[in-house]
Structures are given as structure tokens and as C-alpha cells.
Amino acid sequence: MDALLSIVLPLLAGLVVFLLVMRGIMALVRRSLYRRIRRKFAGQTIVRMSIGANFFGQTSRGLGQIRGNGALVLTPNQLYFALFAPRRELTIQLDNVVSLSTPRVHLGKTVGAKLLRVDFRADGGEDAAAWAVRNLEEWVSDIERFRGH
User: Fold this and answer.
1) DSSP character string of the chain
2) pLDDT score for 20
3) Most exposed residue of 45, 57, 117, 145, measured as fewest CB within 10 angstroms of its CB?
4) Does pLDDT of 2 surpass 90?
């Protein structure tokens, strides 16, 4: 029993340290994204913002995309997403939003909860993107309100 404890306790301690370090890194990432968003939208109205939005991909980019976290921002005229890594941005003008839905799966990916899916007109026709966000129904309601429907 002592031999087992001498193995398990250091492993548990290592796991706790790892989780604390990851939590600190995520806090730094969120602060960095928050500053980036505040600079980009200085002087503009931000209706809703999620620094921890989980991006499920953009349909036109195909199935090989990796999910990623970033900042999702709604203004009165656009939906903007900044992916933390790799650094990528997506801007959807609300006038171009075709429909909103809340599926559980997008591009074969799921977290077992409903997603915010936005179908929109793009240069090459129609496209779609999806995110896991807190307060999903409020996001849907606000986007609908500002797109004029």
C-alpha cells in the first residue's frame, strides 16, 4: 500500500500543478483576447461578447479544421470572431445572415450541447460557422434583433 501511495501521491500533485498552470495560461489568453477586442472595437457599441467561445469551424474550410477558442463579439451590424491560435478572424455582416440555428453538431464535431450556427452569404455563395457559447438563447435573440427580423 505504501508503494502505491508513493506513486499515486506525486502523480496527483503533478496533475494539480499542471491544472493550475493551465488555468493561469488560459487566464492570460483571455486577458490578451479581451485587450485585442477592446482595441479593435474602441468607440463602438458591443452588444454581446464571449471571450471563451468555442469555434466549431467554417463550412467552406472543410472537415479538417480543429476546434478552437476565441472571442465572439456582436455589434449592432456585425458578428466578429477572433480565434486565438492560430490567429484568424471571421467577420459576418448581420445583413448577410441568412439563418440562425442551434444544432448539436457542426462539421461532425460536438460537445453534447447546442451550438450557435450562423448561415450567411459570402463571396462564393453561402457559408456557415458555429460556436459553443454560454447564454445561447440570448445570442440568438440579440442577433435576430439586430439583423432586423
Assistant:
1) -HHHHHHHHHHHHHHHHHHHHHHHHHHHHHHHHHHHHHHHTTTS--SEEEEEEEEEEEGGG-TTPPPEEEEEEE-SSEEEEEETTTTEEEEEEGGGEEEEE--SEETTEE-SS--EEEEEEETTEEEEEEEE-SSHHHHHHHHHHHTT-
2) 74
3) 45
4) no
CA separation for the pair 147, 71 (Å, rounded): 20
93 residue type, one letter: Q
For the chain, the maximum distance between any two Cα atoms, rounded to a whole number of angstroms, is 68
Which residue type occupies 78? Q
Distance CA 27, CA 20 (A): 11
Cα torsion 115, 120, 126, 128 to 10°: value is -20
Q: Domain extents for the chain? A: 44-146
- Residues 46, 36: Cα–Cα separation, whole Å: 13
pLDDT band at 149 (very low <50, low <70, confident <90, very high): low
Identify the band that residue 25 occupies on the pLDDT scale cut at 50, 70 and 90: low
